[in-house]
Amino acid sequence: MTFELSRDHEEFRQSVRAFAQAEIAPHAARWDREHHFPVDVVQKMGAFGLFGITAPEAYGGADGDFTSLCIAIEELGRVDQSLGITLQAGVGLGINPILTYGTEAQKERFLPDLVAGRTLAGFGLTEPGAGSDAGATRTRAELTADGGEWVVNGAKQFITNSGSAITSVVTVTARTGTREDGRPEISAIMLPAGTPGFIAEPAYDKLGWHASDTHPLTFVDAHVPADHLLGERGRGYAQFLATLDDGRVAISALATGCIQACLEMALTYAGERESFGAPIGRKQGVAFQIADLQVMLDASRMLTYRAAAMKDADAPAAAFKQAAAVAKLYSTESAVTATRIATQVFGGYGFMEEYPVARFYRDAKVLEIGEGTSEVQRMLIARGLGLPVE
Q1: Strand segments (E) across the chain
Q2: Which of the four, 84, 150, 165, 252, has the lowest number of CB atoms within 10 Å?
Q3: Is the domain of 247 the same as that of 216?
């Protein structure tokens, strides 16, 4: 049995690749060097339709499938991981929760601009003391005495698309009470940008993803209307866990783009660089490493698009969760290995920032961390196999 993308999917890939080569590739090194978030290009991505791939036509989207979104993320990630994660987070963590759990009024208020790429949205889950253990959330949201407003206090960290000039809203998980079993009640609250008491702290100085927008957030008596609750009260944590399953496949697509870039760079360099009177690609020590890159690429792409196809086919939730975790674990760890191999092929030049392989090397590591660490993926896979792992 073979698995191949449709002709429409392949044509879409070529159109996104052409966009990425024209609008992103020539500038990616400078954006990385200057730690510059290119708002104008992000909005061009919106005008090209990338943020609206999976959104309904009623909100300005293309009503396309999840596979198409993964293709777009992979192709952006092939030239710049920062812009790839901007799209992944903008749709997966920004648009999708509103689309899935929002009221019609919330959708009509936020989605048209988000889908068009005129604005961005973020989702705040991680906190200084609550990363993989998201149930340890300390941010609180309390209703005022008249029940008309939520008052949010707390902090979030590592939040993508949360403090840019075009950020319109960030949804955060917060404690809104205590359940009957004594565990915290976690709900999702939407905080529009500009809300008094909602503070996007200075952007992080990151190892990689220099051209993406990432901030810690602080909330000091931030008041929002009671109707800014996203979804059912007390279901915020469960909602976000479901959101993460999609996100893991999208991160797998981003990692696949990274591996593709490494293969292309290493292959080109191995054919041009000569040592001992011959191209280094003739040496088994180099050729075999590049062959390994092809194996990792094929496996990562197959796992990614298998999981995406399951999402599009409404596969059982447990089966999709397992496929998403497998894809994310394998492709992200492979991406880190691929950047190490590509850097080794380049030798000393791979250590120089003038070559893009150095940027991909720095960008890759976070793929093993965001949207659930490799350790979390192994835990999920083991549980899916029936092992009672804690």
Answers
A1: 120-124, 140-143, 149-160, 167-178, 184-192, 198-200, 214-225, 229-230, 274-275, 278-279
A2: 165
A3: no
371 is catalytic: yes
Report the helix count and the strand count for the chain, using DSSP H and E: 12, 10
* 3-state per-residue secondary structure call for 97-122: HHHHHCCHHHHHHHHHHHHCCCCEEE
**Tell me: the pLDDT tens digits for 175-221?**
999 998 888 999 999 999 999 999 999 999 999 999 999 999 999 99
Q: What is residue 153's DSSP assignment?
A: E
Q: Are residues 201 and 176 in the same domain?
A: yes
Per-residue burial over 4-16, b if 16 or more Cβ lie within 10 Å, else e, is ebeeebeebbeeb
pLDDT tens string 278-292 = 999 999 999 999 999
Q: Are the CB atoms for 261 and 360 separated by under 8 Å?
A: yes
CA distances to 107, 126, 163, 176, 215 from 153, in Å: 25, 15, 18, 11, 17
Give the domain range for residue 227.
122-233
- Alpha-carbon distance of 332 to 351, in angstroms, equals 21
Q: Could you tell me if 173 and 236 are in contact, meaning their C-beta atoms sit under 8 angstroms apart? A: yes
Secondary structure (3-state) at 87:
helix
Separation between Cα atoms, residue 371 and residue 118, nearest integer Å: 25
**Which of 74, 75, 368, 371 is flagged as catalytic?**
371
pTM: 0.96
In a domain, 283, yes or no: yes
Q: Is residue 390 part of a domain?
A: no
CB neighbours of residue 118 within 10 Å: 16
